[in-house]
Fold this protein.
Amino acid sequence: MDLTSPLTLAIIAVAIVTLLYAALLYNQLVSIKHAVSKAWSNIDVMMRQRHDELPKLVETCRRYMQHEQQTLEQVVQARNAVAQAREQSDVNGLGRAETALRSGLGQLFALAENYPDLKASESFVYLQTRISGLESGIADRRELYNEAVNINNVRIEQFPDVLIARIFSFSRSDLLQFAEADMADVDMRMLFS
């Protein structure tokens, strides 16, 4: 084989360009995969913070809301389900658990309206504001996570990325979705009946 022939040089050049392009695609897919992990970690941080605040809220409410134990227990159970799903990285289970937790918190905050002493408590006001802020942060980060997942899932299915993705076992990620009921408007009359 003559290394100076134009055909051999062209073949070598095409092989080098192909390898460089494959390396570029691989590096982009790795970057996207890590963006999904980073987005999940951002959600996880907010959920851990909320997880730490919820027992304080429940305890504060328990002192005032003697007749609302079922609602308080619902919040505690949902908190535990979220923690379990988060620790197992079960995105689908987390979506279901988040829906239950958000529902329980909505009921708790609505019931708090019936307890003027509780609403006047500095501790309750602080915790309600803190948890509401964390809820907003989780919603924002969920949107970023789902966008990263969408980019990942599209890229590993597009040609020529799909070739690299299959060779190196890049996998799809699950979107973090909440139940339709969680995204629907809240019926305030039901909460106060």
Observations:
- The chain has one domain: 6-191.
